[in-house]
């Protein structure tokens, strides 16, 4: 795919959650149509897309039909089975590419990649059994966090080890899965940079946001983040370094810890990111449009921040507060159309403008 996509072109999105939904809305605004591929019933993205295929990632016929119906394929989550990617890749370009997925699907591969770029991370070591955990604890000390290498999200698949006696129960919590032990980082706060890279290598970064997690789930993102000028520059350079090394096309979220020794990378996500939702109301061009522009080969848009914003996730019963939020003149409400409320489920978010242009 060398030429920029023209309006009317078709974008395939793997995954039908809220990220897919907001990508499809941004794509529609630029005149593209979206085809969502999602195994689950009632995908939120389906409400706003041209077409939905409900099929598993093992269904080769459905995957092939999906690929043939679109011009480019993107995704809203990183744990897409390799076999599905192998098949899709032969038929249509996948953006961002395989390398970003390979690196970010496995926390150990990701940490090694980051360290290989010379970026600071928490001390880490691989863990597969009691003996390797004991060795890993020699490297990290305590407190430490044991995490599954794959399929962890929103704090799931993690166990803290405050003292060596807790090693056994933490290992049991991994339920036999390959894991990584990370030394506990003494951070003052957490930030993330959402950055986009186009096919010709141009990069645009949104201002860093400051993130607060509750029970392992993102609760709020505040922009601007508390950062010195030097730290702001560092954050941009780190993100650009990662995007270039992966030859990334599209948006990426880079989560960082702010420590007295500088910025440390926690993790990367090769996709639009929850901590970038503030851009919908804080920038002329938001992360979703920026991603669509990048994968379509369009010039990246102007992502400069035009307001101060606090983004709050609406999780579970928070949805009951929508009448009050809707009445707040500073608030822009974004709901995902999920029929069923469950504890811990992301139902929507609200962007409150705390300083306007
Ligand atoms: P993760 O899924 O790796 O992003 O972890 C979720 C949250 O756990 C992070 O946003 C941090 O608040 C915390 N956390 C994860 N890893 C570490 C670490 N090595 N040191 C301190 N806190 C951590």
Topology:
Blueprint: E1 10-14, H1 18-29, E2 33-37, E3 51-53, H2 60-68, E4 72-75, H3 82-91, H4 98-104, H5 107-116, E5 124-127, H6 130-140, E6 144-148, E7 158-161, H7 167-173, E8 179-183, E9 189-197, E10 203-205, E11 209-214, E12 217-223, H8 229-246, E13 250-259, E14 262-269, H9 279-282, H10 287-296, E15 308-315, H11 322-326, E16 331-335, E17 346-355
Parallel strand pairs: 1-2, 1-4, 2-3
Antiparallel strand pairs: 5-8, 6-7, 6-8, 9-10, 9-11, 9-13, 11-12, 12-15, 13-14, 15-17, 16-17
Bound molecules: adenosine monophosphate (AMP).
Which properties best describe this structure?
357 residues, alpha+beta, Rossmann fold, Dna Ligase, domain 1, D-amino Acid Aminotransferase, Chain A, domain 1, 3 domains, 11 helices, 29% helix, binds adenosine monophosphate
In terms of per-residue confidence, which ranges show pLDDT below 50 for 5 or more consecutive residues?
Answer: none
CATH class of the largest domain: Alpha Beta
Task: Name the beta content range.
Answer: 25-35%
Find the CATH superfamily of the largest domain. ATP-grasp fold, B domain
> In angstroms, what separates the terminal alpha carbons?
39 Å
Number of alpha- plus pi-helical segments: 11
Would you tell me the structural class of the helices and strands? alpha+beta
Instruction: Give the proportion of residues in helices.
Output: 25-40%
Name the ligand types. adenosine monophosphate
Largest sheet composition: 9 strands, antiparallel
Mean pLDDT: 96
Query: What name is given to the CATH topology of the largest domain?
Result: D-amino Acid Aminotransferase, Chain A, domain 1
Number of domains: 3
Q: Report the order of strands and helices.
A: EHEEHEHHHEHEEHEEEEEHEEHHEHEE
């Amino acid at each position: 795919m060398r030429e920029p996509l023209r309006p009317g072109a078709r974008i395939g999105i793997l995954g039908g959650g809220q990220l897919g939904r907001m990508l499809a809305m941004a794509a529609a605004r630029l005149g593209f149509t979206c085809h969502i591929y999602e195994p689950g019933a009632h995908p939120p993205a389906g409400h706003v897309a041209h077409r939905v295929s409900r099929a598993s990632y093992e269904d080769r016929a459905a995957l092939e039909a999906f690929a043939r119906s679109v011009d480019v394929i993107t995704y809203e989550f990183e744990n897409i089975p390799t076999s599905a990617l192998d098949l899709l890749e032969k038929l249509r370009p996948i953006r961002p590419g395989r390398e970003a997925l390979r690196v970010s699907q496995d926390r150990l591969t990701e940490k090694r990649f980051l360290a290989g770029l010379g970026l600071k991370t928490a001390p880490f070591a691989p863990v597969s059994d009691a003996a390797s955990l004991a060795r890993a604890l020699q490297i990290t000390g305590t407190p430490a966090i044991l995490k599954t290498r794959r399929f962890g999200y929103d704090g799931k698949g993690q166990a803290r080890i405050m003292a060596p006696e807790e090693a056994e129960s933490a290992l049991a919590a991994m339920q036999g899965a390959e894991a990584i032990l990370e030394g506990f980082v003494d951070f003052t706060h957490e930030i993330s940079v959402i950055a986009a890279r186009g096919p010709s290598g141009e990069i645009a970064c949104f201002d860093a946001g400051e993130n607060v997690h509750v029970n392992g789930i993102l609760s709020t993102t505040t922009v601007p983040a508390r950062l010195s000028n030097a730290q702001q520059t560092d954050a941009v350079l780190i993100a650009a370094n990662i995007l270039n090394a992966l030859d990334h096309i599209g948006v990426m979220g880079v989560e960082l810890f702010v420590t007295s020794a500088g910025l440390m990378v926690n993790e990367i996500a090769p996709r639009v990111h929850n901590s970038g939702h503030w851009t919908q109301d804080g920038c002329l061009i938001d992360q979703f449009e920026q991603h669509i522009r990048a994968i379509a080969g369009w010039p990246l848009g102007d992502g400069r921040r035009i307001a101060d914003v606090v983004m709050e996730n609406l999780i579970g019963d928070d949805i009951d507060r929508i009448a009050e939020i809707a009445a707040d003149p500073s608030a822009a409400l974004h709901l995902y159309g999920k029929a069923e409320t469950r504890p811990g489920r992301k139902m929507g978010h609200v962007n409150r403008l705390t300083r306007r242009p």
